[in-house]
Amino acid sequence: MKDPIRWTVLAVIMAAVAASLYFWQHRKEAAPQPPSAHKETPPATAARPAPQIQFPLPQVADSPSLPTLDQSDATMREGLASLLGRNIFEQFFQPQNVIRRIVATVDNLPREKLAARLMPVKAVAGPLLLTGAGENRVISAQNSARYLPYVLMAESVDAGRLVAIYVHHYPLFQQAYRELGYPTEYFNDRLVQAIDHLLAAPDIEGPIKLVQRKVLYEFADPELEARSAGQKILIRIGAGNAARVKAKLREIRREVSGQLPKS
């Protein structure tokens, strides 16, 4: 267990809030299929249908002012700095490859590992706080305070202004997702999948035991250690913080789909 950890839930919240609100405002409009790299028509058969989009966004026309993905950092930095404040942005965010970092992180949240070099947000300050020793070593109750500034920032984001940033750049989010190896899939669908996966993280009350089998700490409970990288983050930040993040994610999920998550 590496610490200080990289905060990734904020990236999901920021992208998902924008996606949900924009979708909800335009949910009655017809939703086009996303562009695909190519079309295949098997011999003597009908054209193969594209994968069905589960959570479509309205088509966003390419704006003449929209930069290329490689040149998008300047506008993303300015947009997020205007939303959060320049000092906050510089304190918390990585300034390069912003869109690619967010897309890669969202895609990896349900997986076993997250690549630290691709995180969109800087490391949480300070070391992991522990109490006890040996088999009685647990995460300290004081450790959750280290993550509170990120939780507060996520809760206080101006959703309307965030919508404008996300929607304006959405073709670039989709392009970055295609670059990961998903030429016909839809980034917004993956975003919803990641939210549902985070909501399924167990709610842990009380001390969480750790073991140090090699260099890094791991959860002593094998079931917890087998969880995905994203769910481990929610476990590690503490029950109170996790509840606040999940509340925000449920709100976002409801707006995106028009219904509550199944579980």
Write up this protein.
The protein has 263 residues and is mainly alpha-helical. It has a domain at 9-27 and 62-125 and 144-200 and 236-257. 46% of the residues lie in helices and 3% in strands. The strands form two sheets. The chain has a two-stranded antiparallel sheet with strand order 1-2. Strand 1 (130-131) and strand 2 (138-139) form a beta hairpin. Helix 1 crosses helix 7, helix 4 (98-108) packs across helix 7 (187-199) and helix 7 packs across helix 10 (239-257). The longest helix is centred in the middle third of the chain and has 21 residues, at 159-179. It is globular and about 60 Å long.
Features:
single chain, 263 residues, mainly alpha, two-stranded antiparallel ribbon, 10 helices, globular, disordered N terminus
Task: Give the structure's gist in a few sentences.
By secondary structure, this protein is mostly helical.
Strand residues, percent: under 5%
Terminal-residue CA separation? 28 Å
Instruction: Please tally the β strands and state the result.
Output: 4
pLDDT under 50 segments (min length 5)? 3-7, 17-46
- Summarize model confidence as the mean pLDDT: 79
- Write out the strand line-up for the largest beta sheet, numbering strands in chain order: 1-2
Number of helices: 10
Q: Helicity level, as a percent range?
A: 40-55%
What is the string of SSEs from the N terminus onward? Answer: HHHHEEHHHEEHHH
Instruction: Tell me the structural class.
Output: mainly alpha
Q: Which outline best applies? A: globular
Biggest pleated sheet = 2 strands, antiparallel
Radius of gyration: 20 Å
**What oligomeric state best describes the polypeptide chains here?**
single chain
